[in-house]
Backbone:
């Protein structure tokens, strides 16, 4: 644990049935009357974006513009187009409905508008962004995974310069996070499972990496307990609204935890696998988490031992002798992973994703070594260590 | 703050600034020396784009700005060269913690001791170089406290000390 820490979670959280109907009231409280609604084409097709719009209109708030053109890999061009639409229609706030890509794009739009510039390069970095003009932002996640509704990170690609611009700033945090179980109901089992494992990974890494602090620990531990209680139910029966709500809460808690204590080696390698081989983020997390925990065992074994309590419950925790708890914690995660492999074929090995060749390892390693997440991992990881990990999960 | 306390505080700050200035100069010389004699540092720097410039700054100075080219290697430059990435300490004391080995770079990052301007991934190689330099410059028992893993010495530490003392 560090001797000095900082923590910020400014978002008001609306969680539970009927949350969507309260968005209009929240916007009014923020002094906003002409929101721009953002989402992606898939969510429009499934009627999810329409549900939000209807709920807002029922409470007397009509979006002044709608932008449904966010691709899976968003870019600065998309951000600038959305910002242009915002300006042309005299909007004053953002309401974004979607997964990580839509929520990050909305953060980007807020940034462009707040800074009054289309060139965000000079604002890249960590805590380097000035506040600028405040654009109220309501985030409505449609996956229980990324936690983007509670994080200070936005990654926006600049295809012309071939860089992924990373922004880490407290000014990117949404003002309101809306967790309504109707939003994740249509999520297919495999995506539910993968995004749920991403949440678990956020919580485990936030709770064990160098930047952990007492407040992020509390958030992370609760998130782990919720994932263990609800993930398999949400996968087995998508209409189980209690399980959906439990996972939405878990995702926000884990997001808030890692927004304030960062993630480590699982994410560094996971980002690289996503960038080089297009392995879906949640699947990479599912594959890597136990192996990286074993790798980190020598540095934070006792912390993993403590996590056995939320991972397995008080009976198993109490019945397990202290020295055996770290391994039991890893086994609890492997147990969950085994169940998910059975119910929805979530791959537990890299080769089963069908996206990675062993010849890609060099590029993956090079990228993982330069990923910012590696800095807070409790154990140093060099090229040979990452190669051994990739081979272990191959 | 009573007058005397305030004066003492200002003197302390001046001293901390002077120590940081000295340590940053030593670090710059150590990194230049290591580029010649340590394969890991050479390997990291070889991956930097031509003309890569990195800066470490305290509020109100001093500033260490390093510029890397294939022909000249790593050289300190003045503030007329625009840095690609800048590590800006939030206070003099934050820089003092890092410069006196109370914190490593990872620890300082985890404690929000500095702001980073620029591409986060382009600074990771520099962080590894600083870790290696600290592994040479600090005694082993000390390095163990601030580094996740003390890097092995490829050459005797005396060579790095000589590079620092002789500025070669
Ligand atoms: Fe993640």
Residues:
């Amino acid at each position: 644990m560090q001797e000095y820490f900082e923590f910020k979670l400014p978002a008001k959280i609306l969680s539970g049935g009927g949350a969507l109907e309260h968005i209009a009231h929240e916007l009014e409280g923020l002094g906003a009357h002409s929101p721009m609604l953002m989402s992606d084409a898939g969510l429009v097709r499934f009627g999810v974006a329409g549900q939000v719009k209807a709920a807002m209109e029922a409470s007397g708030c009509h979006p002044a513009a709608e932008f449904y053109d966010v691709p899976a890999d968003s870019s600065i061009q998309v951000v600038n187009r959305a910002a242009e639409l915002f300006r042309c229609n005299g909007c004053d706030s953002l309401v974004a409905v979607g997964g990580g890509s839509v929520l990050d794009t909305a953060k980007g739009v807020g940034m462009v508008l707040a800074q009054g510039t289309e060139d965000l390069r000079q604002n890249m970095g960590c805590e380097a962004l000035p506040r600028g003009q405040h654009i109220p932002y309501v985030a409505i996640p449609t996956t229980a995974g990324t936690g983007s509704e509670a994080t200070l990170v936005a990654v926006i690609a600049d295809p012309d310069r071939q860089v992924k611009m990373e922004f880490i700033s407290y000014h990117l945090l949404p003002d309101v996070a809306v967790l309504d179980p109707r939003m994740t109901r249509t999520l297919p089992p495999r995506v539910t499972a993968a995004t749920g494992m991403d949440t678990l990974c956020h919580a485990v890494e936030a709770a064990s990496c160098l930047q952990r602090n007492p407040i992020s620990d509390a958030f992370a531990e609760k998130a782990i307990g919720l994932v263990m209680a609800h993930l398999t139910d949400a996968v087995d029966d998508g209409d189980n609204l209690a399980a959906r709500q439990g996972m939405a809460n878990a995702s926000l808690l884990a997001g808030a935890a890692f927004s304030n204590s960062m993630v480590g080696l699982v994410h560094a390698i996971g980002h690289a696998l996503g960038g080089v081989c297009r392995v879906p983020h949640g699947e990479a997390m599912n594959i890597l988490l136990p192996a990286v925990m074993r790798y980190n065992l020598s540095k934070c074994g006792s912390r993993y031992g403590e996590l056995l309590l939320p991972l397995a419950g008080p009976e198993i925790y109490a019945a397990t002798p202290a020295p055996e708890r770290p391994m039991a914690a890893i086994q609890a995660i492997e147990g969950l992973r085994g169940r998910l492999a059975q119910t929805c074929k979530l791959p537990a090995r890299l080769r089963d994703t069908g996206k990675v060749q062993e010849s890609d390892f060099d590029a993956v390693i090079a990228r993982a070594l330069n990923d910012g997440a590696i800095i807070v991992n409790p154990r140093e990881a060099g090229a040979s260590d990452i190669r051994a990990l990739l081979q272990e999960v191959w | 703050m009573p007058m005397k306390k305030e004066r003492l505080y200002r003197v302390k700050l001046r001293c901390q600034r002077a120590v940081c200035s000295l340590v940053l100069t030593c670090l710059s010389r150590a990194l230049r020396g290591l580029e010649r004699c340590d394969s890991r540092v050479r390997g990291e720097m070889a991956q930097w784009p031509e003309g890569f410039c990195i800066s470490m700054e305290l509020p109100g100075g001093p500033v260490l700005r390093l510029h890397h080219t294939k022909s000249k290697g790593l050289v300190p430059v003045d503030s007329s060269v625009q840095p690609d990435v800048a590590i800006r300490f939030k206070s003099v004391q934050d820089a003092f913690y890092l410069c006196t080995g109370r914190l490593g770079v990872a620890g300082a990052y985890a404690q929000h001791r500095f702001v980073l301007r620029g591409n986060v991934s382009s600074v990771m190689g520099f962080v590894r170089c600083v870790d290696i330099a600290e592994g040479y410059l600090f005694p082993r028992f000390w390095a163990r406290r601030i580094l996740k893993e003390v890097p092995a010495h490829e050459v005797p530490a005396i060579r790095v000390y000589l590079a620092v003392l002789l500025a070669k």
Observations:
- The domain at 2-166 of chain B is CATH 3.30.1050 (Nonspecific Lipid-transfer Protein; Chain A).
- The two ends of chain B are 46 Å apart (CA to CA).
- Residues A 198, 201-202, 267, 281, 285 surround fe (ii) ion (CB under 6 Å).
